[in-house]
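Lab notebook, design round three. We kept the backbone fixed and only want residue identities now. Task for the bench partner: fill in a sequence for the structure below.
Input structure tokens:
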């Protein structure tokens, strides 16, 4: 699993502060991260996985632009077939060159988890930043393979009601200690430290 960016590219670029929000969630599931602008979308995929709490076990794509001119970015395997652009060749700075630039990230084409990504700030370079940093966030990521947003809210409802007919089944199915309100900033940053960006 590739988890580095080209240091020459990252060193020349500034920093992007991104807000990543899992679409249509209420309460919102979101993370605020700072990453070098020279980080490729391929690496941003891993950053999103760690920041949100996913397990990187499904396909993904980035989506930019507006209909009918949408552009899709994904792994080089798909890019070679002509289905999309190679995400290892495009940086955050290329895709989101201005504050308020937006693009999307879709993870797990079955459950179709859409993440809205907003550029909140573009900051000057900081050579001391050697890995992505999560500044803030709220709420737990849905469990993998839970059936999309509808399935996720069914699980939450069942777990909150001990008399729900599926309460025990879902309590056994989710990870021990999982709760929809939990966001562990320290734990997220420990995972992000494994992704070197300079």
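Proposed sequence:
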């Amino acid at each position: 699993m590739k988890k580095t960016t080209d240091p020459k590219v990252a060193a020349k670029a500034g920093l992007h502060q991104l807000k990543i929000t899992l679409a249509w969630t209420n309460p919102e599931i979101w993370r605020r991260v700072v990453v070098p602008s020279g980080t490729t979308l391929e690496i941003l995929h891993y950053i999103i996985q760690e920041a949100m709490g996913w397990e990187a076990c499904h396909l993904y794509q980035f989506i930019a632009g507006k209909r009918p001119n949408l552009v899709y970015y994904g792994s080089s395997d798909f890019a070679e077939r002509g289905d999309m652009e190679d995400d290892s060749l495009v940086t955050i700075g290329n895709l989101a060159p201005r504050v308020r630039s937006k693009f999307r990230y879709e993870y797990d084409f079955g459950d179709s988890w859409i993440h809205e990504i907003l550029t909140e700030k573009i900051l000057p370079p900081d050579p001391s930043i050697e890995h992505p940093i999560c500044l803030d966030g709220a709420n737990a990521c849905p469990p993998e393979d839970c059936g999309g947003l509808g399935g996720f809210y069914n699980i939450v409802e069942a777990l909150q009601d001990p008399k729900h007919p599926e309460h025990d089944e879902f309590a056994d199915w989710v990870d021990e200690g999982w709760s929809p309100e939990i966001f562990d900033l320290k734990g997220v940053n420990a995972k992000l430290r494994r992704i070197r960006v300079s």
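Keep this in mind before ordering anything: The chain has seven helices and eight strands.
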